[in-house]
Give the backbone structure.
Amino acid sequence: MWMMGSLGRFMMSLRIIQLNQNNLDEAIALSQKVFSHEDYEKDVGVCLRESLELQSLEKSLRFVEPGSKKYRETRKTLDEFTSKYWVSEDLSKIAGLTGLAWSKSDRGKVWLGWFCVDPDYRGRGIGSRLLDHTINQAGRNGFREFRVWTSTLPSEREAQKLYESRGLIVYEKERIRKNKTRKQSYTHIYRRLRLTNVK
Ligand SMILES: CC(C)(COP(=O)(O)OP(=O)(O)OC[C@H]1O[C@@H](n2cnc3c(N)ncnc32)[C@H](O)[C@@H]1OP(=O)(O)O)[C@@H](O)C(=O)NCCC(=O)NCCS
């Protein structure tokens, strides 16, 4: 179903739901399509699968006696690294993906993860809604700072305007020299947003 958005452009009847076993494969396919040119250390499919495993682990804590060895070990694993992802779904098709990733040692900082919209669905406000949703989730979950690791790669150009519009300021840049896989050098950009004012 289509309707006119308040911004005067067509918006889809879109819902944002948590990543789960039913939408996992489609979410992986979308993110691999979008991020296929990037040289990330970890494959996006691995990250998304791992996230669901960690969530099951967190749920399992409800049935473990607090203070027991198993409880402490599970808590330690979860404190080392946790992530949570959402997909935007339109008539059961996955149009976008977003996520949060954090570790206890990050002390209140949380990172945006694998944020993207299917090229066929871009320019319709989905990316904006997903980013707002993610920032809100970060604030509601008590994080103090929302961080983004992005770059000057042409494939991430559109995202920069969106980040600027949400007040995500650049706090660090890192020049990456060209290597075997990349013909031109580019720059990593680190952005952040203090979350004290997020409702
Ligand atoms: C960034 C991305 C998620 C935006 O998704 P989207 O659904 O097109 O976003 P929206 O429709 O909400 O547009 C958001 C803003 O992006 C900008 N934008 C979107 N498409 C654009 C385009 N083709 N050219 C220039 N700017 C564009 C606009 O400024 C728009 O703001 P507006 O509300 O003032 O028009 C999408 O382009 C994408 O997946 N990019 C590749 C992956 C990526 O870069 N991820 C971030 C990695 S750090």
Q: What stands out?
A: Residues 34, 115-117, 122-128, 148, 150, 155-156, 158-159, 161-162 surround coenzyme A (CB under 6 Å).
